[in-house]
Design brief:
The structure is a single chain. With about 120 residues, the protein is mostly beta strands. It has no helices and eleven strands. Strands 2, 4, 5, 6, 9, 10 and 11 form a seven-stranded mixed beta sheet that branches. It has a four-stranded antiparallel beta sheet with strand order 1-3-8-7, with no helix packed on it. The radius of gyration is 14 Å and the shape is elongated.
Amino acid sequence: QVHVVESGGGLVQAGGSLRLSCAASGSINSINAVGWYRQAPGKQREFVARIDSGGSTDYGDSVKGRSTISRNNAKNTMYLQMITLKSGDAAVYYCAAEVLDRGQYSTSWGPGTQVTVSS
């Protein structure tokens, strides 16, 4: 019922900035929270940022102080603004929607958008 898709990935020089978007569709009201995760080849998926239905935010240690998560007024698009990108930020970034529907929790994942950092 809930689908999310990412956009905004690309090539960024180290020290640069990037804005990622996550568009949600379907049963938007069933979304409890939306988060960003990233995964580089050979590494575990890493938590990046999260925003819940009340607007509370949380950030992973690796991006804390360099990232801002937000959403638009319609609550159907979520953004991740990253600054001062490092080579370690290179990864596929995934949007994940935490969904509560009929008393059941589930997570809807997007296909991902790749971020490449050059130095």
